[in-house]
Design brief:
Blueprint: H1 2-32, H2 41-48, E1 126-131, E2 134-139, E3 146-150, H3 151-154, E4 158-159, E5 170-172, E6 178-184, E7 200-206, E8 212-217, E9 219-224, E10 230-235, E11 241-245, E12 251-255, E13 264-271, E14 277-284, E15 290-296, E16 304-307, E17 314-318, E18 324-329, E19 342-347, E20 353-355, E21 360-362, E22 368-369, E23 375-382, E24 392-397, E25 403-405, E26 413-418, E27 424-429, E28 433-438, E29 444-448, E30 454-457
Antiparallel strand pairs: 1-2, 1-30, 2-3, 4-6, 5-6, 6-7, 7-8, 9-10, 10-11, 11-12, 13-14, 14-15, 15-16, 17-18, 18-19, 19-20, 21-23, 22-23, 23-24, 24-25, 26-27, 27-28, 28-29
Length: 458
């Protein structure tokens, strides 16, 4: 009995060893990738191995791992990854063409005679200039410099200027005997508390005696009429244009500004040669550019608008014949990327406008007509000649057919003004005083060595 029991124990131990060896072999094949099926095939392999010894049923061995409830996955056959196609070498993309830099030949200065000599003889003239609140005068040949008046010595007032928001501090009478001056209660707005404005007045200065005579209160920027009987000015109360009669002393507003819109005021007003009309700019308070209107000097009839707001016009000036008005505007044709201030003219009768200059930007000074009405003098910089702003003097024909350069100087030449009935232009050379140029022979001469604000007695 004991022998039989030992026999069967040995048989069972041997069978267990065989099963263990088979499992190890199958597991090794699965791990090494040699088995073609999933782990569920291991159970089938175990069932196919016959037990050792007699064909006696043994205890059924359970599979090592339960079969998955889904069929084993299948993988698509490997395919070769396509290599990228190299770019074609037969077509080369074109290189961008560089934009050529325009080559501009500077406009040369005009050779004399620059314009035909006008009729009449050249006679001396007088320049009146300011030195703070002191008025001085000097002859055009450099002689007889003298003090006309020291305002502070006569009145507790100051000669007004840009420091108190005044553009035109003085206007000479047509006969050259008087000067309309703007006086102020302070020398500078900066000396006043915020929100407080200075008080202004317009006085008449006798250039022979040096005596001051009060004319009106609350007025600035006087402009004497060509016939000498009236003075136009801007009211600091209404911001409109008023005219005072020098014979009667009566003052009347001839162009009004809507008081509900204080963004506007009148500026740059100038008389017609016959003293019957006044051209003015109804402009923004800051820029002083905008619309150009013509009003009757007596305030009769409705004002006429010549230039719309869209042109941002400024600095109007009548021709000697009275049929045209020159002005400056950023509107017009040109080839520069910025918007230069061009010189224009408008026909007073028809309203037809014509651009005279392009690509030469003015500083905003008033274009000044020659006494015969054929030429307009202005200062401007030729924008196509370089990046540096160099303001020179120019002449343009009234129809725009001719352009003549008077100066070509790194020092800016500004504010050209014709000497009435003569062939000379007086101008200010920045930092180098007052000069004149003869527009016939092209000769230059320094009139005064200091850089001052001045007016010319006509």
């Amino acid at each position: 009995m004991n022998r039989m029991r030992n026999f069967w124990q040995a048989v069972l131990a041997l069978g267990a060893t065989v099963v263990l060896v088979v499992l190890v072999v199958l597991l090794f094949r699965v791990v090494s990738g040699e088995a073609p099926t999933a782990l569920s095939r291991a159970g089938e392999g175990l069932a196919s191995v016959p037990p050792p010894g007699p064909a006696t049923p043994l205890i059924e061995q359970a599979p090592a791992y339960p079969p998955p409830p889904y069929p084993p996955p299948t993988w698509p056959p490997a395919t070769e990854v396509p290599r990228p196609t190299p770019p074609s070498t037969s077509t080369v993309p074109p290189e961008p063409t560089s934009i050529p830099t325009p080559v501009v030949t500077p406009i040369p200065t005009a050779a004399p005679p620059i314009i035909p000599r006008p009729p009449g003889e050249t006679t001396p003239y007088t320049i009146v200039f300011r030195d703070d609140s002191v008025i001085r005068a000097i002859n055009s040949d450099g002689t007889n410099e003298h003090v006309v008046v020291d305002i502070r010595a006569q009145l507790p007032l100051f000669l007004a200027g840009s420091r108190v928001g005044v553009r035109a501090w003085g206007s000479p009478s047509p006969d050259g005997k008087q000067l309309a001056l703007v006086l102020s209660t302070v020398e500078s707005i900066e000396s006043l508390p915020k929100g407080i404005q200075p008080q202004y007045s317009i006085d008449l200065l006798d250039l022979t005696t040096g005596r001051l005579h009060p004319l009106i209160q609350d007025g600035v920027d006087p402009a004497w009429s060509p016939d000498g009987t009236k003075i136009a000015y801007r009211s600091t109360r209404t911001f409109g244009l008023q005219v005072v009669d020098l014979i009667t002393g009566a003052s009347k507003e001839v162009f009004s500004i809507d008081r509900t819109n204080l963004d506007y005021h009148v500026d740059f007003f100038v008389w017609s040669p016959d003293s019957k009309s006044i051209a003015l700019v109804k402009g923004f308070s800051v820029a002083s550019v905008g619309e150009v209107w013509v009003v009757n000097a007596k305030g009769e009839g409705a004002p006429t608008q010549l230039i719309p707001l869209e042109m941002y016009a400024g600095y109007p000036n009548w021709s000697s014949s009275g049929d045209q008005i020159a002005f400056v505007s950023p509107a017009g044709e040109g080839v520069t990327s910025n918007r230069p201030l061009n010189v224009w003219v408008v026909d007073v009768g028809t309203g037809e406008r014509r651009q005279l200059t392009q690509n030469i930007s003015t500083t905003g000074g008033t274009p000044d007509w020659s006494s015969d009405g054929n030429w307009i003098a202005f200062e401007g910089t030729a924008l196509l000649e370089g990046s540096e702003y160099q303001y020179d003097l120019w002449l343009v024909a009234r129809d725009g057919s001719e352009l003549k350069r008077l100066t070509n100087d790194p020092v800016s030449d500004l504010y050209p003004s014709w000497v009435p009935n003569r062939n000379k232009i007086v101008f200010r050379k920045s930092g180098a005083g007052i000069w004149e140029v003869d527009v016939v022979d092209g000769a230059f001469r320094q009139v005064y060595q200091r850089d001052v604000e001045y007016v010319i007695l006509k």
